Amino acid sequence: MKDIRKGKAAFIYTSGVSEFNFSPEHPFKPLRVEKVYKMCKERGLLSDSSVALIKVDEGREEDLAIFHTADYINILKRADSGEAVDVDMLYHGIGTMENPVFSGLYQFCLLSVAATLKAVEMVTGGFESAFNPCGGFHHAHSDRAGGFCYVNDAVIAIKRLKKLGRRVAYVDIDAHHCDGVQDAFYDDPEVLIVSIHESGRTLFPWGGFENEIGKGKGKGFNINIPMEPDTDDEVFTLLFNNIVMDSVKRFDPDVIVGQFGTDTSATDPLTHLKMTNNAYIESIQLMHKNFPNIVALGGGGYNMKDVTNGWTLLWAELAGLEAGGGYGGAIGGVLMGDSSIQGSDLRDMRSYVSGPAKEKLVLSAEKLISYYEENIQSFL
Ligand SMILES: [Zn+2]
Q: So where are the chain's domains?
């Protein structure tokens, strides 16, 4: 890619997507892309000479075909008008409350995939990392929509990177299990899939248990870490350090494709965890320090403040810039934050579960770590 200059990080901006609307009551708001872009811009995080702002305003059908079937792509095209829903669409998961038909649906799919592939192009072309906030649609299958996801840009990115000879680890810290990505690579030992999420006993897509470890030659290369409801930052970090970081270090990828949904937050309306964005960003920072080349994708997040704060912190980390803020936020004489922490005004107040509830959470995390050490570690 001779036309790409080298740099620290590329922000991939799909300016048109904010106009799309799944439905007025739908929790997924494409407007989030605009909000994150604006916050990053206002804080001067897009103007540094070390970063690039890349605008994507068109996509290609052939890129969807890297993973999706021709029949399914035709269904997506038919749904683009935002009008009639037919039985065929419903058969492919489209036209439901969860995955509604809306005007511009196909365009939205094309743009999401194009932006993620642009992120891949930037990272393979000399940039250290790239971030597409309009990505991370990890529930889509090759011929079926699921969980607000119509096309699986994460799978498409991994397939492209593989084709370019890169060794890829996919790390998914969204509160939901990445069923679409898991299924696409379940028998593939060349890609490591690691997902840390709220347990499928209490949350969609109702799977992603620790004993789903891959099959055939892919056995051991699919790792699930199902967390109990009410899991807090400390328990998440324990699991992240002992399983996610350990497995990725053993696998030693060239590139990480990260799905960085912010719906693990205690204030997310769809999930049941008790995390703050401190564990979120600190785990990403640790991973980034060890593995600089990251294709970072958005994902879930249904509280707009969590999304904009979380992804601004994420972008600042990738870009190697100070997220701004820097004041302690003293309210009523009580110091609410540490001004020495980067982007402190974007950080949630730290809070932890305690007492017997915490002991139960730690016990359950220790069981998951033992399971990983006994059943998976030797494959890596
Ligand atoms: Zn999610």
A: 7-379
CATH topology for 7-379 is: Arginase; Chain A (3.40.800)
- In the reported structure, the alpha carbon of residue 205 is separated from the centroid of ligand 1 by a whole-number distance in angstroms of 10
CA 69, 74, 75, 76 dihedral sign is positive
Tokens 């294709």 belong to which residue? 295
- Calculate the average pLDDT of the chain: 94
Q: How many angstroms does the Cα of residue 327 sit away from the middle of ligand 1? A: 31
Using an 8 Å Cβ cutoff, are 376 and 368 in contact? no
Q: For ligand 1, a single-atom ion, which residues have Cβ within 5 Å?
A: 174-176, 261, 263, 300
Whether 59 contacts 111, CB under 8 Å? yes
268 Cα–ligand 1 center, Å: 10
Ligand 1 center–CA 360 separation, angstroms: 24
Residue 276: left (phi > 0), alpha (psi -120 to 50), or beta? beta
Q: For the whole prediction, is pTM greater than 0.85? A: yes
3-class DSSP assignment, residue 296: strand
For residues 58 and 250, give the distance between their C-alpha atoms in angstroms, rounded to a whole number: 38
pLDDT at position 277 over 80 = yes
**Helix pair angle (304-319, 32-42), 10° resolution:** 50
139 an active-site residue? yes
How would you class 367 by CB atoms within 10 Å of its CB: exposed for 0-12, middle for 13-18, buried for 19 or more? exposed
Q: What is the DSSP letter of 17?
A: G
Distance 175 CA to ligand 1 centre (A): 5
Q: What's the CA-to-centroid distance between 339 and ligand 1, angstroms? A: 30
Contact 224, 179 (CB under 8 A): no
Catalytic member of 68, 92, 139, 176: 139
| Secondary structure (3-state) at 366 | helix
Mention every residue, 6+ apart, whose C-beta is less than 8 A from residue 128: 7, 8, 9, 292, 293, 294, 318
Q: What tens digit of pLDDT does each residue of 168-185 get?
A: 999 999 999 999 999 999
